[in-house]
Amino acid sequence: MIKAQRGTKDILPSDILTWQEIENKARNLFQNANYKEIRTPIFESTDLFKRGVGDSTDIVNKEMYTFNVGGGDTSITLRPENTAGVVRSYIEHGMDKLPTPVKLWYFGPMFRYERPQAGRQRQFHQIGLELFGIPDASADAEVIILAAEFLKANGIGNLVVSLNSLGCPDCRNKYKEKIKAAIKPYLENLCDDCKVRFEKNPLRMLDCKNEDCKKIFEKEEIKKVINDDFICEDCKNHFEELKKYLDKVGIKYEIDKMLVRGLDYYTRTVFEIKSTALGAQSAVLGGGRYDGLVEMLGGKPTPAVGFALGAERLFSLIEKKEEDKLDYFVVSKFQDVAIKTVFELRQKGYSADFDMLGRKFAKQLERAGKVAKKAVIIGEDELEKGFYTVKNLESGVQEKVSSL
Ligand code: HAM
Q: What confidence score (pLDDT) does residue 255 get?
């Protein structure tokens, strides 16, 4: 028998109400904050992710589902994330001409060829938003506040935002050199991935999960470089402003100098919200500012900031929604009468169903008791005299009515 692919999951009817509830909450909250929904294609040109997410990231190097199509001439990739696709769409549709800021949100499947484990799938869903056009830290604050509000709306409170500033390309390049100089004496002891990162993407070393690497980064002289305030005056002011805004609305955060994120496009603010209940894959959501990405992908220089949340991870944290019972179940051996009654009830806005197999009366009533709040019983007597017997299946009370 053919089974679902490793790292993919069916979302079954028993879970769908909870999924719909998550989506409804996102729609209400984000649209109330003036974000419009955007739905971009699931596959894009491979170049978009290579340039956008970054050639030296794990996502691009190891995790992309890439295909050659059109006789091998065109390389396409299933989207591993949605920021690059949304930016592509923003540029392609001239959204820079819309009143600033442009605020967009999305919900959809993403694909990463990772080793599946709890909280990590190869097809997963992200809910996210992107805000274009505002350099001020008020935009970063709004995005972080909405992320926290969304979790709160889903019954998850008391979470702390991990926050860091990666500076602008100028100050970050200087920082990278300092980090490299401090780590160089230990280069031989780093894991193979970090040896490559040392050359290509030194900050990503700080995010390494290898215990030996972690111990090296704990060394006094390296810690000192990491903890040093390397960011320039402008970046510092931006970060201070952001903290002030978050304090003002009472969002709890902690500064995490090791937070570097796994995508190359970030400038200044990066953040994550984690939950210890999630185990090893603890990040429920992550995001940050990416002021260089629109220009890098061919648009005008445009500051931007956003986040994306892993919907499966959120799903695993929240209370599941129980299915509501139907308003009515029609019990009758006269199929034509049952089908007409159900049709009329649905037209009036009630949820209703009936027995399509023409089972015995007792069986139909038993089924009604399982799936509905009330049974509409239509036997010979009811049909002859023109009334309905309505049984309240919770209280057992039965009454005769002339119309439903
Ligand atoms: P990301 O941190 O790569 O950021 O992914 C965001 C969230 O997606 C993670 O915090 C996690 O909850 C979920 N996630 C990622 N990979 C998997 C997986 N394999 N299985 C299950 N869940 C997963 C981004 O994708 C950026 N585009 C976020 C962003 C938007 N930055 C600015 N705007």
A: 96
Q: Is the CB of 121 under 6 A from ligand 1?
A: yes
Whole-structure pTM value = 0.94
- Torsion 207-209-210-212 (CA) sign: positive
CA nearest neighbour of 143 among 376, 296, 308, 17: 308
Residue owning the nearest CA to atom 22 of ligand 1: 310
Task: Locate CATH 3.30.930.10 in the chain.
Answer: 13-168+231-317
Q: Tell which one of 285, 293, 302, 318 to mutate to probe ligand 1, the residue whose CB is within 8 A of the most ligand atoms.
A: 285
End-to-end CA distance of the chain: 48
Q: pLDDT tens digits, residue range 64-111?
A: 999 999 888 899 999 999 999 999 999 999 999 999 999 999 999 999
Please tell me the distance from the alpha carbon of residue 138 to that of residue 240, in angstroms, as a whole number: 11
Burial 68-84 (b: 16+ CB within 10 A, else e): eeeeeeeebbbbbbbbb
Reported confidence tier of residue 118, pLDDT bands at 50, 70, 90 = very high
- Whether ligand 1 lies within 6 angstroms of the CB of 22 is answered as no
Ligand 1 pocket, residue 310 CB under 6 Å = yes
Evaluate: CB of 133 within 6 angstroms of ligand 1.
no
The fold of the 326-401 domain, in CATH, is: Rossmann fold (3.40.50)
Topology annotation, domain 13-168+231-317: BirA Bifunctional Protein; domain 2 (3.30.930)
Positions of CATH 3.40.50.800 in the chain: 326-401
SS3 101: coil
Model pLDDT, residue 209: 86
